[in-house]
Design a protein that fits this description.
mainly alpha; 3 helices
Length: 92
Amino acid sequence: MANTASARKRIRQTEKRTERNRARKSRVRTFLRKVELAIAGGDKTAAATAFQAAQPEMQRAAGKGVFHANTVARKLSRLSARIKAIGASAQA
C-alpha cells in the first residue's frame, strides 16, 4: 500500500482516470456496434447516420488518449469504405 501522501493521491487520480477511460471506451464501442448493425442490415442511410454519430465520439476518444489516433483513423476509413460498398453492391 502507498505510504506517502503523493502516492495516495496518485492512486486516487488513477482510479478516476481509469473509470473515465472505461466509460469512453464503452461509449465508442456502443456507437461502433450501431454502425456495424446498420451495415449488416444493408441499410446505407442508417449506416451513414450511425457513422456520422460515431465519428466525433471516436475522434474525441483519440484526442483524450483512450485510443491511438491512427487506430481511430484506420477504423473510420474501413467503416466508411464498407458503407460505400453497400450502395455499390446494391446497384451491381
